[in-house]
Design brief:
The structure is a single chain. With 72 residues, the protein is mainly alpha-helical. The protein has two helices and no strands. The two termini are 34 Å apart.
Length: 72
């Protein structure tokens, strides 16, 4: 992430919760973390398959040649 050109400040405040509320929040954050990791894994696998795809490689090469032709 690029550094902001304007001044920025962050205030961190503690959250006052009861024990049962804390347990619920912890559980939900763990579920969200697992979901995020699964989605990230799936996206990375799709990207890996895309890079292996012959048609994708052909299109990339065509694009490289077109850019090179434009430059000369």
């Amino acid at each position: 992430m690029a550094k902001s050109k304007t001044a920025s400040f962050v205030v961190a405040l503690g959250l006052v919760t009861h024990q049962n509320e804390q347990a619920v929040l912890d559980k939900r954050f763990k579920i969200a973390e697992k979901l995020y990791n699964k989605v990230l894994y799936h996206a990375r696998m799709q990207l890996t398959e895309l890079y292996k795809n012959r048609r994708y490689q052909e299109v990339l090469e065509e694009r490289r040649l077109a850019i090179k032709a434009k430059e000369t």
